């Protein structure tokens, strides 16, 4: 008997180590990883600089209570704020925790600003995924709570991209709208710049906060440090996780000063959030990703991958319906079953991830080399040939 709670549909692959963009199975087989732990290992495996920084901190201090000064945390917060709209950062350990913090911060803002106990509704979108805690599940839609015999009040669910339904749903009790600029689990659906601008306008007109969930699409994956930076739209709150720790548990909720100043002592907390070890890794990730030319290289290889995938879509119209996404968060909308595609690609030593809407997600390391990009295209072509 396996004593691990059976919540994951595991394959029979058993990886012993990784290097660069590759994972190595116990029998020695090499797999090109275009899943990266679902957009987590964005700098690949066994990254020497990250490993060295982690090892250096291990010998000094792992954990420290947040009642003490944590210089690594202060530095990481400062650097993240310099990279975006934010003035404050709350550190936690995962994307779900970051989303929970964002909901709490939005509701706290209106409780303090208006002394309101009713302006607490959050509008979310079809196809969204915000985590697996009760609150973050509720933000993903009521159906996600059905099997847990639970109802969570204060959430409204509208079709993704539907302006009319959104306007009908917003009212004086709407505290925030939360959206992924690019939906991951929902099938790599990109919110257009015009739609995000419309959300910002609606929020401003209705005294409502705008939350961007960039847990999967942020931290360099689109070719900008944050996905929203391809637009002129700025959120009030943003959630991040996954790639900021490159596999080490680290998440964060970022806010403007206007919103964040209402979170005072004791209003929120996390035992392990922002510990010296995690923040040392986060700072090391930023060291790599903020180097001159890094994001330019991301965009160069990502553009080549997109062009090559579009060619395959033309060559295999019976397998591929369309290519979606931006940068290195891409989706193959399949005409065959997406699970069949994932399984066949795995037999060709390429790891991918299925998503909703019959989509296969491609989430390679964002420091993917052009050589490995070409290898991946050959593997995908072989998969398409076998599924035709």
What does this structure look like?
- With 388 residues, the protein is α/β, with parallel strands linked by helices.
- The protein has two domains: 15-33 and 293-387, Aspartate Aminotransferase, domain 1, CATH 3.90.1150; 50-289, 3-Layer(aba) Sandwich (Aspartate Aminotransferase, domain 2), CATH 3.40.640.
- 36% of the residues lie in helices and 19% in strands.
- It is built from twelve helices and 17 strands.
- The chain has helices spanning 36-39, 48-58, 71-82, 95-114, 134-139, 163-169, 193-205, 257-260, 276-289, 294-315, 338-347, 370-387; strands spanning 15-19, 22-25, 30-33, 88-92, 121-125, 155-158, 174-179, 182-183, 189-190, 209-213, 237-240, 251-255, 320-326, 329-334, 350-351, 353-355, 359-362.
- A seven-stranded mixed β-sheet has the order 4-12-11-10-7-5-6, with helices on both faces.
- Strand 5 (121-125), helix 5 (134-139) and strand 6 (155-158) form a beta-alpha-beta unit.
- Helix 3 (71-82) packs parallel to helix 9 (276-289).
- The longest helix is centred in the last third of the chain and has 22 residues, at 294-315.
């Amino acid at each position: 008997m396996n004593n691990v709670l059976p919540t994951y549909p595991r394959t029979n692959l058993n990886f012993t180590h990784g290097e660069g963009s590759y994972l190595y199975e116990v029998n020695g087989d090499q797999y090109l990883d275009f899943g990266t732990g679902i957009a987590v290992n964005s700098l690949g495996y066994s990254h020497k600089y990250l490993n060295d920084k982690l090892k250096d901190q291990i010998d000094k201090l792992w954990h420290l209570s947040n009642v003490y000064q944590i210089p690594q945390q202060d530095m990481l917060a400062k650097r993240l704020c310099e990279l975006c709209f934010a003035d404050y950062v709350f550190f936690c350990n995962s994307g779900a925790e970051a989303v929970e913090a964002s909901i709490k911060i939005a509701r706290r803002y209106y409780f303090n600003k208006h002394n309101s106990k009713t302006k607490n509704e959050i509008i979310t979108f079809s196809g969204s995924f915000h985590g697996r805690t009760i609150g973050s599940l509720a933000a993903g839609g009521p159906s996600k709570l059905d099997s847990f015999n639970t109802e969570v009040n204060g959430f409204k669910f509208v079709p993704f991209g539907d302006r009319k339904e959104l306007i009908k749903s917003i009212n004086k009790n709407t505290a925030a709208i939360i959206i992924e600029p690019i939906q991951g689990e929902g099938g790599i659906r990109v919110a257009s710049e015009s739609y995000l601008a419309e959300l910002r306008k609606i929020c401003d007109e209705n005294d409502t906060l705008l939350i961007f969930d960039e847990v999967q699409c942020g931290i360099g994956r689109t070719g900008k440090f944050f996905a929203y930076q391809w637009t002129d739209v700025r959120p009030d709150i943003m959630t991040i996780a996954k790639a900021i720790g490159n596999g080490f548990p680290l998440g964060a909720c970022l806010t403007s000063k206007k919103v964040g100043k209402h979170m005072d002592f004791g209003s929120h907390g996390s035992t392990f959030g922002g510990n010296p070890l995690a923040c040392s890794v986060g700072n090391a990730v930023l060291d790599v990703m903020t180097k001159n030319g890094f994001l330019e290289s991301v965009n160069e290889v990502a553009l080549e991958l997109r062009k090559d995938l579009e060619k395959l879509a033309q060559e295999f119209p019976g397998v591929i319906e369309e290519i979606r996404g931006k940068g290195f968060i891409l989706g193959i909308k399949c005409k065959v079953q997406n699970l069949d595609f994932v399984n066949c690609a795995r037999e060709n030593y390429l790891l991918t991830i299925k998503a909703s809407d019959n989509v296969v997600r491609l989430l390679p390391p964002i420091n993917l080399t052009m050589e490995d990009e070409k290898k991946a295209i050959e593997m995908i072509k072989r998969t398409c040939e076998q599924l035709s």
